[in-house]
Amino acid sequence: MRLIFLMPALIFFADAPAMADPSTEGFRKLNALEIRRAFAGRTFSDDVHFSFWYAPDGRVEGTGMGVKVTNRWRTDRDELCVTDANGESCYGVWKKGGAVKLIIGDQDISLDGDLH
Q1: Is 22 in a helix, a strand, or coil?
Q2: Dihedral angle of Cα 91, 71, 53, 77, to the nearest 10 degrees
Q3: Is residue 84 part of a domain?
Q4: Does residue 31 sit within a domain?
Q5: Which range marks the domain in which residue 105 is found?
Q6: Which residues contact 35 (CB under 8 A, 6 or more apart)?
């Protein structure tokens, strides 16, 4: 299967079976309320490729691969959904301390960063 994984200003490609369960690494899957509390007013970044600030009013501002990003975010069915110029993508959110993994369904790739 070929997956196109969209995140504001980032595109990842992978040929993928199911991902190993992040809970085996100590991550815990967040529900919608926990996602909102974790992201609202905070910055999600890998400190190199992207840095996105999630405003409490649903805006996302920052940079991805050196390009300015202005998008929207919301929670739906215990997922973080981000709308950009390519449409909406929704991610399961797994958290361990400040470390976060965003994963679409059971794919074997994740967008990893920290919340500041």
Answers
A1: helix
A2: -30
A3: yes
A4: yes
A5: 2-13+26-115
A6: 75, 78, 79, 80, 93
